[in-house]
Amino acid sequence: MERRAFLERLRSHLAEEEPQQDASAQPDLPERRVLGARERIDLFIDRLRELGVEVQVVASRQDAKDAVERLVGERAWGSVACAPGLRWPGISEKWTAEAREAPFGLCEADWAVAETGTVVVKSSADVRRGHSLLPPAVGFFVSERCIFPTVGDVLHELAAVERALPSCISFISGPSNTADIASVHVVGVHGPREVFAWVIAEAAGGAVDHGSSGHDE
Amino acid sequence: MSVASRKAFDERVERALGDEMLQEVIAEGQDYMQALVEPARAEAEWAAAVDQIARIRAHTLAHLDRYVDQFATNVEERGGHVFFAADAAEARRYVSDLAQRQRAKLIVKSKSMVTEEIELNSALEAIGAKVVETDLGEFIVQMAHERPFHIVAPAIHKSLEQIRQLFSAAAGRQLEADARALTDYAQGVLREQFFAADMGISGCNFGVAATGSVVLVTNEGNGRMTTTLPRTHVVVMGVERLVPTIEDLEPILRVLPRAGAGERITAYVTAITGPRRDDEADGPREMHVVIVDNGRSRMLGGKYEKILMCIRCGACLDVCPVYRKIGGHAYDSVYPGPIGAVLSPLLDGLQCHPELPFASSLCGACTEVCPARIPLAEYIRELREDSVGNGPGPLAWRLGFQAFAAAAARPRLWAAAEAVALPFLRLMSAGGALLNGRGPLAAWTRSRDFPRAEGTSFRALWRRGQDRRGP
After folding, report:
1. Residue A123 is nearest to which of B134, B249, B280, comparing CB atoms?
2. Topology of B43-298 in CATH?
3. Using CA of residue B34, residue B37, residue B39, residue B41, what is the dihedral sign?
């Protein structure tokens, strides 16, 4: 159907009303939840654990890298998929794997949500959608600075850049799961079964700037 | 209601009631969902968020033409294609033509009620494409050649053993009766399909007018796979699925996961805005958004408009005592339960589902739990009114009401009827017994006691009272 005719058909059923252009015509949004920095971080960590995420608080970005290297070694993962900007000097060739083949994917959270234990990842030239989706285990670097109290707070941030949204933004809360077979909760379906997070303390000066994709200091 | 459709409906109900295992599985499923959802509904923020959702949805519908226009413009600006489908046939044709043009042989789908509504799968299969449902529940019902039994839990009616048998037959080997093992089997099969697929088709939980984003709320990851791996992503959405701004998603994302399965949030909420950028290394190269009317515009501005506020959480199915007994398939419509009892007759016409408004006890539990504040029970009652007002109804009804109208307006005729009816009723209910399910009143008396006709009639009492009081 032609766009004009389609819209006209909708219009014909609606009351004649001036279109409301200003934001005041929009429904009210709730007051954002006020949480202190410490409270926010603690809540985030609690919620991640409730979701079955393996969380570690680290003092610096360097500590986070060391922790990842240790984990990869312990698990004897033969390859890792991650954005080029997340790779650091000294790591081997195996960190350039395709997400499809890799047993582990590493990502940097652009934002995080305390209330729901969510990490938010934007797609970009550097960051593939597959990094946080295709490997059976994924890990996230989360700077303390990018933890917001609620999903609404992150949506507020996104609204500020609405003309420049990336093609894909993923809000990820724990491992993939289902209860579609006889209402039995099963963790790990098409998306990752295991999720790790390294919360990087801001005070140590090791945290990345919010929004960067995690280049080395 | 035609006799034939009534009979077919009764047969479906009888089948469900007679299936002991099904009765057990539905009750267990409903109890499971209730136990998950009940605590979430008790949270302090629930009521405020629900009020907001109702406001946002009502506002969007009041200006739907404007928001659809804005949404389409933004999808196109971000490199997506938009098609406006007046009805199911137009939507099917557009997607089939696109699949043919792109020589799409294998199509993966993530869960979408609207594609069920427009019967997209059979259209795509007719042009030789293989269509694979990738949501685990949908995968099961597709394999069983059935319709979804529930809006958010399509295979909730299948027991572990039934699913084991289905999967084992497909695998050609005996699989273990274990949810983990069966999930792993499906995951293995589907992973290959995701990578091999030429096209991915998804629904759309919400579209954001201000950005042209399509938002998907999922748990398994199949939605992300479907919208990431194939070279073309097709979104099929009902025209009412919009919110004005990205911030309007907040109360919806707070309530939808809670109402659907008692979760604080789903594992994935994905906002897709156009196809992949030129510099991006993955994601589909093409994105098509099919905006489907298919009867929805008829509801705008009318007495049933609020049904378009539905967020498809399935909460009304989880509390409905009728759904608990007759299950999802007895409705014989894409949308089962209270939402289906209203939505299906409105989408397809009351003549297609004349029995659905009667598949309710009008207890109002659905209205009470609806997070979009849709007056479902009231709508069901109104649809009953419409169905009586619209058609002549069965002959027995017509004759009965005509006889009642004639007698009620003529005191002597009434008195004569009473003189015959009272002794008859006393005879029928002699000894306080019931009619034992025989005769024309059988449908009523099979499960209810027929009350004993006792004492005197109202008219006789009235006369006596008048006599006592004197002139």
Report:
1. B280
2. Rossmann fold (3.40.50)
3. negative
In a domain, A107, yes or no: yes
Q: What is the ipTM of this complex?
A: 0.90
Give CA–CA dist B315/B337, Å, rounded. Answer: 10
List the domain boundaries for chain B. 43-298, 396-469
Which one-letter amino acid corresponds to residue B144?
Answer: A
| Inside any domain, residue A43 | yes
Contacts of B187 in chain A (CB under 8 A): 188-190
CB contact under 8 A, A189 and B183: yes
> Domain containing A145: what range?
33-200
Q: Is B257 on the interface with A (CB under 8 A)?
A: no
3-state secondary structure B37-91: HHHHHCCHHHHHHHHHHHHHHHHHHHCHHHHHHHHHHHHHHCCCEEEEECCHHHH
B298: contact with A, CB 8 A cutoff? yes
Q: Is residue A45 part of a domain?
A: yes
- In tens digits, chain A (217 residues) has pLDDT values of 899 999 999 999 997 765 555 443 444 555 556 788 899 999 999 999 999 999 999 999 999 999 999 999 999 999 999 998 899 888 888 888 899 999 999 999 999 999 999 999 999 999 999 999 999 999 999 999 999 999 999 999 999 998 889 999 999 999 999 999 998 999 999 999 999 999 999 754 433 444 333 333 3
Cβ <8 Å between B69 and A165: no
How many domains does chain A contain in total? 1
Tell me whether B62 touches chain A (CB under 8 Å). yes
Q: Would you call B295 an interface residue with chain A, using a CB distance cutoff of 8 Å?
A: no
